[in-house]
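To: structure desk
From: M.T.
Subject: fold request, one chain
Message: Could you run this one when you get a chance? Sequence is below, nothing fancy, just the single chain.
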Amino acid sequence: MPANSRPFHTLLVANRGEIAVRIMRSARRLGLATVAVYSEADRHGAHVACADRAVCIGAAAPRASYLNIAAIVDAARRSGADAVHPGYGFLAENAEFAEAVTAAGLVFVGPPAQAIRAMGNKAEAKRLMLAADMPCVPGYQGTAQDDGTLLAQAAQIGFPLMVKAAAGGGGRGMRLVREAAELPAALASARSEAATAFGSSELILERAVMAPRHVEIQVFADSHGNVVHLGERDCSVQRRHQKVIEEAPSPAVGAALRARMGDAAVRAARAIGYVGAGTMEFLLDGGGNFYFMEMNTRLQVEHAVTEAITGFDLVEWQLRVAAGEPLPATQDAVRFTGHAIEVRLTAEDVPAGFLPQGGPLLRWRPPAAGRDVRVDHALEEGGTIPTHYDSMVAKLVAHGADREAARRKLLRAVEDCVLLGVPSNQAFLADCLASAAFAGNEVHTGFVETHMQAALQAAQPPAQVSACAALLAAGALDLGGSPALLARPPSHVVLDIAGQSWQALLHSGADGWHVSLSRREPEAPAVDVALRVLRADAARGTALVECDGVAYPLVFARDPNALHLFQAGRAWRFGLHDPRRKAGKEGGADGVLQAPLTARIVAVHVAAGEHVAAGQPLVVLEAMKMEHLIAAPFAGVVTELAARAGGQASAGAVLARVQAQADTPADTQTHDKEPA
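Reply: Done. Structure tokens follow.
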């Protein structure tokens, strides 16, 4: 038995959020004590409260805490842990971390360091898989990384092609290049993001397989030579190369193809001496041909759908294998029942390009979990979503007898999920699940771009019932109003939303309130609505409001500048003031460039006084593991530069100001300086 496989009694989970809570749940059921680690930003996190003991490992920034190998190993020593589970993300696929854990005499709940190292680099992994006769996408995975070599190799591969970070995953450092002229900029951008996210700027090139499915095989191996696969998951619904919806089994994979892909995955796991949970990821084209992309040497975010259709607890399997036990089941014993679909709920502003968001969590009401619906999260109402970590805050999973049953259950669960305080992708997820294309299984990796463009546009104005409900809720929470909820709403309120301003005039009647609601536009007709409050709970921010004879349940909350409302499966944020900004100002049309989110300033590529072209990169921000490029909105001169590389920018902070070329004073000088 390998030295890394032996019984243990106390498990330290080197992660945070929902995955830490989920791992602790299985560990506790097996009789293990649990230890949480937390950063200063997570002191009050749910995973800390869930553990038997917890250790602070550093400041909020990941490199000072969750990526600090020495601090985590020391936390295990101080807390009495004798095993470490890395979860996913952070150090989960870091061979140095696995080595440090085992060198400290602890059990690492994961594969051997040599397997992590072999498969953790996409270039090396492809070389190994090609040697093992695994079908791979044609490309370049050589050690020469200069632009000349990469440009020459790209010409041989042909366009379109993919640029990928060799050391990473999750879509970071990945660019689709459709023609040769785009390649130099794509290489520079991918290198920068890869270096920030993974500490390595090494890249590989692959021929782009257009409109494929992304299908992965779950494999499991123990220290006794047993290897099985637990079927496939379809992860084709993605945005910016990051998974949005996952399901098992894949609607595009039948029994024969499953057997071929499963056999290939098992052979590959055996070839590298794998132990533990792993995932072989493939591209699947319309002809049933599959091509190896990479192996994730860890538990996947989407493992829950495999658990739903197999009935196995994959974390329990990990813990048993790490303790030296054989796999709990043989390949012949693996059975698949029904269909499962999962969505990832993220704190992101979808119309702004899925920009990650952080801030106070004013309301959190997950859908009721039951036999067929599972909600994995570590959120607490009244808490805060930090900006330092990944934007995923919860997973919702539904299981049904078939795909359509699972889809319907999950759609209802998503529409019942209340998250107020920060923007989220909740409505976007519901739109995806409800779309005819998804229901009809018209799914590939370009699904979002092909079918969901309307859902990606700026938020549409709410229905009149939502605006009226916001009006009443504003009265309940505004200006120290009556203690009796909704008893005395103001007679005149202006609400801003979706680039529009709504004006409402109220007067009381014998049967409730009457509202005259209109958009503040010339000649916009007013709509008269009759309202009554049937039930209200001030402490919980809930109400049942009747609008023109139809009753609607509401959830609402207030921050200093806005009213947040959840109604009919949608979250809305109404500004409670007259709009003072001109239309289009948010997009930089006035030359003022603001930080779209709280973030670290990674780079500043211009100097004050410098002439810039339209679209020229000016500032690069990094938050929640993603880079965000701030570009010049038009040609002109940088008249103000507040951004400083290495600093922090709060959401809405002015980073720079560009004066349009036509407005540039004649005596403005060009500064030929190197980018900062």
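Reply (cont.): The first strand starts at residue 10 and ends at 13. Let me know if you need anything else for the meeting.
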